[in-house]
Amino acid sequence: MATQTPIMDSTEVKSERKERGYTRNLIRTLKLNQPDMPAVEIAKLLSISKERVRQCLVAEGLPTRVRPDYGECEVCGTALKAGRKAYCSTACRSIDCRVSFRCDYCGQAKAVLQSVYNAQKRRGYKYMYCSHQCRSFGKWEAIKLQPRMIVSVS
Ligand SMILES: [Zn+2]
Ligand SMILES: [Zn+2]
Questions:
Q1: Which ligand is nearest to the CA of 107?
Q2: Shortest-distance ligand to the CA of residue 108
Q3: CA 116 – ligand 1 centroid, Å
Q4: Which of 62, 94, 109, 127 could join 57 via S-S bond, C-beta 3.0 to 4.6 A?
Q5: How far is residue 116's CA from residue 129's CA, in Å, rounded to a whole number?
Q6: Which ligand has the minimum distance to the alpha carbon of residue 136?
Q7: DSSP string covering 101-152, please?
Q8: 95 Cα–ligand 1 center, Å
Q9: What is the model's pTM?
């Protein structure tokens, strides 16, 4: 009596399904722990195809695309949204408005934040210096010049 041989052994089918479930779980765990990990990286890590990773992510209802990195706001460090180049908001942009001036000691051009410049002016600084070194040299020059001026007068 001839018996029909199944096309595929049932146990084989089961292990194949188990294997698939295992990979899917692994991808899910990976993606949840590292949301920024691109599908290509997951594929490399598990040595499976990128398409397979994508299918698994779709099946798990997880995003297949990683949000591109637009960098951080130059003022507050917030992650930037698409379309923003350097600042997260107009408030941050106005804070980071730079002013350039020439150092009163060495004459080098230097750019500082508008807020920093304003604060120095508010404090009544007559001179603007490019560095702490120039500032201390500048102060020293001023002290040195004053007595000399008195001497020349007398
Ligand atoms: Zn900001
Ligand atoms: Zn200087």
A1: 2
A2: 2
A3: 17
A4: 62
A5: 12
A6: 2
A7: EE-TTT--EEEEEHHHHHHHHHTT-S---SSHHHHHHHHHHHHHHHHHHHHH
A8: 9
A9: 0.39
> What pLDDT tens digit does each residue of the chain (154 aa) get?
555 655 666 677 777 777 778 889 999 998 888 888 888 889 999 999 999 999 998 988 888 877 667 788 887 888 888 777 788 888 887 777 778 889 999 999 888 877 788 888 888 888 888 888 998 888 887 776 665 555 554 4
CA of 129 relative to ligand 2 center, distance in Å? 5
d(CA 40, CA 45): 9
Q: Would you state the structure tokens that stand for residue 106, as one six-digit string?
A: 């060495």
Ligand number, closest to the Cα atom of 71 = 1
Q: Please, are residues 99 and 67 in contact by the beta-carbon 8 Å criterion?
A: no
75, 86 contact by CB (below 8 A) = no
